[in-house]
Amino acid sequence: MKYTIAVLAAAHADVEQIIDWLEERSKAGVIHWIESYEAALDVLTQEPERHALAPEASVLQRPVRQLLFRTRRGRRYRLIYLVDGMEVQILRVRTPSERPLDSSDI
Q1: H or E element, residue 23
Q2: CA distances for 73 relative to 11, 57, 64, angstroms
Q3: C-alpha to C-alpha distance for 92 and 15, rounded to whole angstroms
């Protein structure tokens, strides 16, 4: 069975911020980042629970998971999400340099 993906408002804002930052530097970089992001979302439609709990799960006291994805240049991003029935809720998209989440981030 396929899971549906719901990108929550904070995650959507994260994506917009990343795209805005990349657009200032490389139009091709934006295209490649979006391709990597969409491929990661597609992976989550299959078996989202096979990915590890995020380091923040114990602090947040919720089964928050993460999927790491890389860009063509090797930068690693994190999709942070919850599984609710057959829906995957994307909570945040984090860049390599961002601090771990706390309860105010969700």
Answers
A1: helix 9-23
A2: 22, 29, 27
A3: 9
Distance from C-alpha of 80 to C-alpha of 77, rounded to nearest angstrom: 10
3-state secondary structure of 14: helix
| pTM for this model (two decimals) | 0.87
Which H or E run contains 37?
Answer: helix 27-44
- For 10, the 3-state DSSP assignment is helix
The one-letter amino acid at 86: M
What is the pLDDT, as a whole number, of residue 64? 93
pLDDT, averaged per 10 consecutive residues of the chain (106 residues), comes to 93 95 86 93 94 88 91 85 96 80 66
6 is written with which tokens? Answer: 């719901």
Crossing angle, helix 27-44 and helix 9-23, to 10 degrees?
150
